[in-house]
Amino acid sequence: MTDQTLPAPDVTTDFTDLREQQLQSWLAQIFVDQPFTLESLPGDASARRYHRIQLVGNHTDEVTKTARYIVMDSADEQDAMQQFITVAKLMSQAINVPELIAQDIEKGFLVLQDFGAVEFAHLLVGATPAQVNEYYQSAMETLVALQQIPVETARSQYQLPDYDAAMLNREMDLFSEWFIPHIGVTLDTSLWENLKSALIEEILLQPQVIVHRDYHSRNLMQDQADNARLGVIDFQDAVIGAHSYDLVSLLRDAYVEWPEPKVMQWIHDFWQLQKQAGLITTDSAKQFESQVNIMGVQRHLKVLGIFIRLYKRDGKNRYLADIPKVMRDFLFELDWLSSQINTQGNACLQQAVLLFNEWVRDNVLPAYQTKFVQQYI
Questions:
Q1: Which ranges of 175-322 would DSSP assign to H, the alpha helix?
Q2: pTM value?
Q3: What does DSSP assign to residue 320?
Q4: CA distance 334 to 350
């Protein structure tokens, strides 16, 4: 008799089927006697799953006929769901975030207002230069409105955490833990620690505001109820941190690229918007530009590491195609800061950036080009 090994059961499929049954049952309790259809939406970089629910009404009930909502399924992330609800209540005081329709934190289900399917990135496709500028001005005005929420309110009433030195350091270590091993380079530990320390010191000196932490073209939506308004999503990781962080996310987006002169003009525009709103900012637009580039180095170190982690740990290889854009931004920021030696800013930071930039150019860039340009691009 030959030994026949039976195939292992597909635990993932079984769990998914069971989860969908639980969701269908819960939604039937929320929308009593209202038939509906459920459409699964493409996933993002998190473990959460999203669906669009369409209520099926009769021909005489136009409101019910067209009612649509977003359903968040966060099976193993109840804490993140609670944070999403808390941050939504905080941000709704100033900006357009989804209205919360129904929730069951224990089950991990949430029904939200549906902004529609038009992302900020979609608006930019085929837009004229004037329209592009108008869209970015709107996104920056929304960001300024968010920054006007008092930090003490966010901290004391909504328990938003601080974007502190430990968090900044932990994020940058994603670069050393994931990106550097992936391209096969040995890290210069001394240069690396000096760079991180200098960046953190400068970042913590920046004015503190509420930080979305992922304020970019895929997390801003054209509100289908009012096309003139931008809806903001995916904000559950909000913190209290540097006022330049979200602007970096927006203007040096991993998924949308603009010439640096245009980016610099928008940086200056944002500085003016901050001043007009009475927010604490720098003495000059040039100084704010420096803060943006300092923050950009920190963010892009993190993103390079995250994209490799998503690929190697989570099997999400679609983010590999976005790495060249992130690398170009990262190199630009390093070059910009290196060129400012003896002209403005912290000499210790500039020296740390200069030495690290030289190491990157000599070691990281050749290995990166071999790995990505030849294999992935």
A1: 180-183, 189-203, 245-251, 260-276, 285-312
A2: 0.89
A3: G
A4: 9
Domains of the chain in start order, with CATH, are: 11-113 (3.30.200.20), 120-375 (3.90.1200.10)
Q: The tokens of 20 are what?
A: 């969908």
* 3-class SS of residue 86: helix
Q: What angle do CA 170, 97, 251 make, to 5 degrees?
A: 55
Tokens of 254: 């991993």
Q: Which helix (H) or strand (E) element contains residue 352? A: helix 347-359
Task: Tell me the backbone φ, ψ of residue 340, rounded to 5 degrees.
Answer: -90, 5
Give CA–CA dist 63/29, Å, rounded. Answer: 20
DSSP state of 128: -
pLDDT in tens, 343-368: 456 788 989 999 999 999 999 999 99
Q: In whole angstroms, give the CA distance from residue 227 to residue 213.
A: 24
For residue 261, the Cα-to-chain-centroid distance in whole angstroms is 23
Q: What is the pLDDT of residue 11?
A: 39
pLDDT value of residue 66? 62
Minimal CA–CA distance to 232: which of 244, 215, 246, 248? 215
